[in-house]
Design brief:
303 residues; 16 strands; six-stranded mixed beta sheet; 23% strand; alpha/beta; ten-stranded mixed beta sheet; 3 domains; Trna Endonuclease, Chain: A, domain 1; Restriction Endonuclease; 434 Repressor (Amino-terminal Domain)
Length: 303
């Protein structure tokens, strides 16, 4: 725990140095939410990145996509390896790296090496490699002989844009120029999987918001339990059954930080209209809403 706190402290300093505003969270799929005028970042910090679960990764990706944010995992090691500087790893499709590499990325010095299934690979500029090969009148076989690789390997590298770190270094040494591309960790495709374990209560909420044209996602490892995505605003929500004043305050702070709305969902028909200034909406009321505009208008009026 002490090592994890030290990493968080180091990253908070890096964010501050790059003029980010930050919020911190406990027991969530991310520990830090940071934003500046360029981007929003959701960051999970673990000493051992192999303790990051698939469910956490899925919820982290869902929140990042909903917030139009980047997501990353920062740690020191995996089960059987130490995380190296200038390397990007991957855990359930989330880009992962050590604190130094992440801090450098905040300064726009992006890593160059991606550890793919334990093997370091580099993204190379295929067009530039092709130009250099043609300019030097080299066949795939000729170039392969220069860097101790086969004709097939050179063909695959030029077509795929992926090379081993060793061959990439040899190519750059031979041509005396840089052909590798750095990896923008903030521009990472974050695929998600649809939940197939929704409760009847959760499925009812998703279906009712879908009926008036909005997409809702259910989360289990995030600061909020649901997000409804509107054209103009995101609505973060939770269930009214076990909400505490402390969590309500966190929800309000997060909504303000992300410029979003808040709501609580209930299955009761007779209830107060708000809790700690957060609007309460019943599933029955959702059934009666016809448009997104009606929905947002109700949230604003009660908030």
């Amino acid at each position: 725990m002490q090592a994890q706190r030290a990493i968080v402290a180091e990253l908070l300093t890096a964010f501050k140095d790059n003029e980010y505003e930050v919020m911190q969270f406990d027991r969530s799929c991310f520990d830090i939410c940071a934003k500046n005028i360029k981007r929003t970042v959701l960051l999970k910090v673990l000493v051992n990145i192999d303790s990051f679960t698939e469910n956490q990764a899925n919820d982290l990706a869902k929140m990042a996509n909903a917030m139009d944010a980047s997501a990353a995992l920062v740690g020191l090691h995996g089960r059987n390896f130490i995380m190296k500087d200038n390397f990007v790893y991957e855990r359930y499709n989330i880009p992962s790296m050590n604190p130094q590499t992440f801090s450098m990325a905040l300064d726009n010095f992006f890593p160059a090496v991606f550890s793919k299934k334990g093997k370091p690979v580099v993204r190379v500029n295929s067009d530039e490699l092709n130009r250099l090969r043609q300019e030097n009148k080299l066949s795939y076989k000729d170039l392969g002989e220069k860097v101790n690789a086969s004709k097939k390997t050179m063909y695959v590298i030029e077509k795929s844009g992926i090379a081993s770190e060793e061959i990439s270094n040899k190519l750059e040494s031979f041509f005396d120029t840089i052909i590798s591309n750095t990896i923008d960790i903030f521009d990472w495709n974050l695929p998600t999987e649809k939940r197939d374990d929704l409760t009847q209560y959760e499925q009812s909420f998703v279906d009712k918001t879908h009926n008036f044209g909005l997409e809702s996602i259910i989360l289990r490892n995030a600061p909020v339990n649901m997000i409804t995505i509107s054209k103009n605003k995101m609505v973060m929500g939770d269930w009214d059954k076990s909400i505490s004043k402390q969590k309500a305050q966190m929800m309000k702070d997060l909504a303000e930080f992300c410029s979003s709305y808040n709501m609580l969902i209930t299955d009761k028909q007779d209830q107060t209209k708000y809790f700690e200034d957060i609007p309460i909406v019943s599933l029955l009321e959702l059934s009666e809403i016809k448009t997104e505009r009606q929905f947002i208008k109700m949230i604003i009026k009660r908030g």
